[in-house]
Amino acid sequence: MEDCIFCKILKGEIPCDKVYEDDRVLSFKDINPEAPVHVLIIPKKHISSINELKEDDEKLIGYIYTVAGKIAKQLGISEKGYRIVSNCGEDGGQTVGHIHFHFLAGRKLNWPPG
Ligand code: AMP
Ligand code: ZN
Known about the structure:
- This is HIT family protein.
- It comes from Clostridium pasteurianum DSM 525 = ATCC 6013.
- One of its GO terms (molecular function) is catalytic activity.
- The structure is a single chain.
- The chain is α+β, with helices and mostly antiparallel strands.
- It has a single domain, classed as HIT family, subunit A.
- Helix content is 25%, strand content 21%.
- The chain has a 5-stranded antiparallel β-sheet, with helices on one face.
- Strand 1 and strand 2 form a beta hairpin.
- It is globular and about 35 Å long.
- The structure holds adenosine monophosphate (AMP) and zinc ion.
- Zinc ion binds next to helix 1.
């Protein structure tokens, strides 16, 4: 956890371009955007990946989708559409070991993802 880059962002040790914050969740712009809108939504609780989720976390993870809807509204893209993605493990393309949800929008996104 001490080496977790997203925990460092949560503690203010690394800066971020904040999009949304409340008591449970932080959202900030991805440093390496893959779309015109690319923000990350993370729980404030350190959970390393989907593999580590416990039943107690179900509300929190569901809540992240509610926050995604709020962010879409805030950014004015609810109608245009967007994609929420969470990568898990090496094959899934996860590079940061703190569960997070990519919010991608602002262009027609390819399907299936590569
Ligand atoms: P993933 O590869 O699915 O684990 O996603 C991790 C994401 O975190 C990547 O899209 C990175 O560009 C992004 N990222 C890494 N470090 C930072 C940072 N300091 N601020 C914002 N985004 C970051
Ligand atoms: Zn963390």
